[in-house]
Amino acid sequence: MKVKTHTFRLGKYNVCFSKDGWDGICEVPSEPKDKLEISVLEGNSQRVLRSQIHESLHAEGIPDKYLHDKEWDVCDNVARFLWRLGWKNKQKRRR
Fold first, then answer.
1. In Å, how far are 25, 51, 74, 78 from 18, measured between CA atoms?
2. pLDDT tens readout for residues 4-38
3. What does the H/E/C string look like for the chain?
4. Are 75 and 54 in contact (CB under 8 A)?
5. How far apart are the first and last CA of the chain?
6. Is 18:42 a contact under the CB 8 Å cutoff?
7. Domain ranges of the chain
8. What is the pTM of this model?
9. Do 10 and 33 contact (CB within 8 A), yes or no?
10. How far apart are CA 51 and CA 92, in angstroms?
11. What are 44-70's pLDDT values in tens digits?
12. I want to staple 26 with a disulfide (CB 3.0 to 4.6 A). Which of 12, 54, 55, 60 is the partner?
């Protein structure tokens, strides 16, 4: 069963999945909102994992300057680490 909502620091988000297009989008409210949306890639790849990490950190309120650094991509680094630890295998077993 897919996650439909999740509460992050910035609020409760409706979770949407896409198979292509944007890697992800996350609403970051300037003031409290009842309905927020986060969109991440669906699938089982390192790119998908990176998308999910990146957008969830936006929903936690991590500033863009830490997530959009062209020289050091923290989300890519964490995704590669988790991938090497076996994230891909755990995803296949859950289905």
1. 10, 11, 22, 21
2. 999 999 999 999 998 877 889 999 988 777 789 99
3. CCCCEEEECCEEEEEEEECCCCCEEECCCCCCCCCEEEEEECCCCHHHHHHHHHHHHHHCCCCHHHHCCCCCCHHHHHHHHHHHHCHHHHHHHHC
4. yes
5. 9
6. yes
7. 5-94
8. 0.85
9. no
10. 18
11. 899 999 999 999 999 999 998 899 888
12. 55
d(CA 81, CA 63): 22
Mean pLDDT (the chain) is 87
Token pair of 35 as six digits: 């309905």
Question: Both tokens of residue 69?
Answer: 């650094």
